[in-house]
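Table S2 (continued). Query chain:
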Amino acid sequence: MKLTRVQNLTLALRAILFNFGLMLIVIILGLISCLIWWLPLDERQKIATRGNQGIMIWLRLICDINVTVTGLENVPNGPCVILSNHQSAWESFYFQWLFRPVSFVLKRELFWIPFFGWSLATMAPIGIRRSHPAGAMRQVFKHGQERLSKGIKIVIYPEGTRNPNGQLGAFKTGGAALAKLSGVPILPISHNAGAHWPATGWLKYSGTVQVTIGPAIDSSLDNARSLTDKARSWIASSLGDNISKA
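Corresponding output:
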């Protein structure tokens, strides 16, 4: 649907105001993170996710973007490997709050972003170099097992990059392999965040981000490739519903 000039102007003004608030929250979080690095991880994340909540509230107030979550009863009490489609920055902000304590597998270059990277580095992420796949997998297996053994959930985006809403890329098997190696379940998650907070561009579009959490997959029942295919199949099926509601 083509937007009118007034609608485009409204979207632009909303985005400018939201991004200003987002930048302010990120700067404050980055400075606070430098002061609390010595606290236990759960305490650091408890403080940091106040900022994530603030971002979600600001997003709702300024851009009229809400969220609904279904399937929370499927989340294991203990550690698991979360496999989710990747469309936006939105899911990383939201999942860090929803699944605390949690650790993300992400590219190391993000740590060098002023303020944002500082805060990120204190949240016990698993930083990898995507240009060195073999070394990246060793890091995921080594640090992933350490995190999982401490009861920390791991979030992995198996597409390896963000895709527009309505598209789902090929899945890499590393997340399923980590779950199988560690003896923890896989939790598949789908969402349509890219319909409202696209990966490209700076405008935000009002509506409801729909997050669907699927039944946990027993990682002991199959090999990593089959487990990955099972998770992707569930996410693809769920996205069909989410996209129709976007």
